[in-house]
């Protein structure tokens, strides 16, 4: 399985979710899942994660090896699941999809959070330009949703979640 995690600039939310997902997949013993991240915009291509994002993640025990890259149609085609952070990312990523099959793979990360409401998952707000507590709140929201992704993979329910949140 291949998962693409997407936010706006690929320096705050998506590298954080990528790091959490890699950590949780390893902790669950799930092998054969590749995780990458990208941004819908190209402003930070080649940049490391934002310092407050990586600092909070490292404090929680996550590793960061990713650099910013921009989402392309071929990333959607190659992925089995595309996790976006908010409605804007959802629209932008689906607009890049070259087929309905690729568009169907795109869902908000919040769709996997405990208590997610089908069709209206909670967005992960962009903390860029804010202070450290915004990044703490970001991780507090990302972590349970990522655990939901891992559980959906383990129980073979990813398609069920995609169906529940399809437009």
TrEMBL record:
The record's active-site residues are 7, 13, 126
Q: Where is the Phosphotyrosine protein phosphatase I domain?
A: 1-152
Q: If you read the UniProt record, what top EC class would you report for this enzyme, in one word?
A: hydrolase
Q: Which superkingdom, per the lineage?
A: Bacteria
Instruction: List the InterPro entries.
Output: LMW_PTPase, Ptyr_pPase, Ptyr_pPase_sf, Tyr_phospatase_low_mol_wt
EC?
3.1.3.48
* Record keywords: Hydrolase, Protein phosphatase
Q: Which Pfam families match?
A: LMWPc
Q: Which GO terms describe its molecular function?
A: protein tyrosine phosphatase activity
Q: Does the keyword Hydrolase apply?
A: yes
SUPFAM superfamilies reported in the protein's UniProt record: Phosphotyrosine protein phosphatases I
PANTHER family cross-referenced by the UniProt entry: LOW MOLECULAR WEIGHT PHOSPHOTYROSINE PROTEIN PHOSPHATASE, LOW MOLECULAR WEIGHT PROTEIN TYROSINE PHOSPHATASE
Give the family from UniProt.
Answer: Belongs to the low molecular weight phosphotyrosine protein phosphatase family.
In its UniProt entry, what is this protein called? Answer: protein-tyrosine-phosphatase
Traced from the root, the source organism's taxonomic lineage reads: Bacteria, Bacillati, Actinomycetota, Actinomycetes, Micrococcales
